[in-house]
């Protein structure tokens, strides 16, 4: 058993970390040598290996978070390598050291990182060899977090666990959902009950969000009934309640979303923001804007940027342009929220939806920050709807400057705009550009739930396992719509 560490000694180690160790570790030349020297000077090495390990774990934690510098995670892995080496006097890492190292590996192996990939896999092998996986809870949890961007690897780790806890299910469900595979995540959620593990508030929130993503209303309603029966107190939890409100709204059951919202005993700005978003999904601008006033009146909550954005989105979907512009002008003085890029982007989209393209460009010119891809993407979509070729070319050039033309969708839009304007040569030139650059577009898909099972479809989907049945139903629908209604039958139905 590790000896007791007095509070004063613990505080000393943390002050040493903040004042000396972290700056030393971040030094560009020989960063880890000063760490060893400082621990020796402070009297921790070699007489107090436990205190030295405490200080080093704190340093690993600070470096792994990538807060101060993108280079820090690599330094954390270097420090762990020195701790593992018998050639240094540093204490060997314990089971608390490796979760911090795995967090650093997740940052080093990230797609946007310039470092060599594979640090996480090497650590995984080391943990297996040293029997820390799959028996240590902290290590297994950190491994699942490491593999979260690759759900197939996270699932492999999950399947090897002899004893699974709620947090493990939550991480795998979330990994599937973030990868666009909510149905697979919900299968893990169902398996949780078969394994006899009770879900906590975090797992329920993740599962309900996956139901919303998949459009699985029956599954989401079942989770709601489960909470009402097994843990009714969780209906007052801000995250569980908000997830239910969002799920019902996205699945088309706004009345049920309002019922859940009205039944919550305490509603913070997060809950109110979700309700505003629910009204926005259904294009109910008046109700969404009214929520901004109700927040302060009913619960003493001031709207934040998310809630105001939801109200702006509702105005955009409902075509309430004047209300949206007024909200953008007054949001700072009325609610104390400074307009951000997302608010301007939403307002530009609102103007483009109704054909006020010149006003949208004028608003872009007044933005206090540089417009990003979402702004010019809205302009390009508006140009397609209203046939403005010149402005479409401007938007495409701006998107190219921002790197937004890596998606085939920008060029497809521009090509279609040229075709609509009967500029076939320009459309052909743009199409050739798509092929020469090897640009790809992620296909959009639709999802529908039937008898608790979610099916996804893409345009001209010939790989769907039930495509022949789908085509047959579509043929019947087309035939039925082509038939002329019987006037006598129609009158009889009306009377």
UniProtKB/TrEMBL annotation:
Could you tell me which residues the PPR repeats occupy?
165-199, 237-271
Keyword terms, alphabetized: Repeat, Signal, Transit peptide
What residues form the membrane-spanning segments?
none
Presence of the UniProt keyword Transmembrane in the record? no
Q: Which PROSITE patterns match?
A: PPR
**Could you say which residues form the signal peptide?**
1-26
Q: Which GO terms describe its biological process?
A: RNA modification
Keyword Transcription found: no
Recorded GO molecular functions are: RNA binding
Q: Which Gene3D superfamilies match?
A: Tetratricopeptide repeat domain
The protein depicted here goes by the name: Pentacotripeptide-repeat region of PRORP domain-containing protein
Which organism does this sequence originate in? Setaria italica
């Amino acid at each position: 058993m590790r000896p007791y560490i007095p509070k004063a000694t613990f505080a000393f180690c943390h002050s040493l970390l903040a004042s000396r160790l972290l700056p030393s570790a971040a030094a560009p030349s020989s960063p880890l040598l000063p760490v060893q020297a400082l621990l020796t000077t402070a009297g921790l090495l070699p007489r107090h290996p436990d205190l030295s390990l405490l200080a080093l774990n704190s340093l690993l934690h600070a470096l792994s978070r990538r807060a101060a510098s993108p280079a820090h995670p690599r330094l954390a892995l270097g420090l762990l390598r020195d701790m593992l080496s018998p050639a240094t006097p540093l204490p060997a890492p314990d089971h608390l050291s490796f979760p911090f190292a795995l967090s650093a590996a997740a940052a080093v192996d990230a797609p946007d990182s310039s470092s060599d990939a594979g640090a996480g896999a090497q650590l995984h092998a080391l943990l297996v060899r040293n029997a820390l996986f799959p028996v240590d809870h902290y290590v297994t949890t950190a491994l699942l977090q490491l593999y979260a961007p690759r759900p197939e690897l996270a699932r492999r780790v999950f399947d090897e666990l002899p004893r699974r806890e709620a947090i493990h299910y939550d991480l795998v469900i979330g990994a599937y959902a973030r990868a666009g595979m909510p149905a697979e995540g919900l299968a893990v959620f169902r398996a949780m009950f078969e394994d006899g593990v009770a879900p906590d508030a975090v797992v329920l929130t993740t599962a309900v969000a996956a139901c919303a993503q998949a459009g699985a209303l029956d599954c989401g309603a079942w989770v709601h009934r489960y909470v009402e029966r097994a843990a009714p107190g969780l209906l007052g939890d801000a995250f569980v309640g908000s997830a239910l409100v969002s799920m019902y709204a996205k699945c088309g059951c706004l009345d049920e979303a309002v019922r859940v919202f009205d039944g919550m005993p305490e509603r913070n700005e997060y809950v109110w923001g979700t309700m505003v978003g629910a009204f926005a999904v259904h294009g109910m601008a008046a109700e969404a804007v009214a929520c901004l006033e109700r927040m302060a009146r009913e619960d003493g909550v001031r709207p934040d940027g998310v809630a105001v954005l939801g109200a702006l989105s509702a105005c955009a979907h409902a075509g309430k342009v004047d209300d949206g512009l007024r909200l953008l002008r007054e949001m700072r003085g009325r609610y104390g929220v400074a307009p951000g890029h997302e608010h301007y982007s939403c307002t530009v989209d609102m103007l483009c939806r109704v054909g006020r393209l010149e006003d949208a460009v004028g608003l872009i010119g007044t933005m206090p920050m540089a417009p990003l891809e979402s702004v010019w993407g809205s302009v390009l979509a508006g140009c397609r709807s209203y046939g403005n070729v010149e402005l479409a070319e401007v938007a495409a050039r701006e998107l190219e400057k921002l790197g937004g033309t890596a998606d085939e969708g920008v060029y497809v839009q521009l090509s279609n705009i040229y075709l609509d304007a009967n500029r076939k040569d320009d459309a052909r030139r743009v199409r050739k550009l798509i092929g020469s650059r090897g640009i790809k577009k992620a296909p959009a898909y639709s999802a529908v739930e039937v008898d608790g099972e979610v099916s996804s479809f893409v345009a001209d989907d010939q790989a769907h396992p039930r495509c022949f049945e789908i085509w047959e139903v579509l043929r019947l629908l087309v035939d039925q719509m082509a038939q002329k209604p019987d006037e006598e039958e129609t009158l009889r139905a009306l009377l």
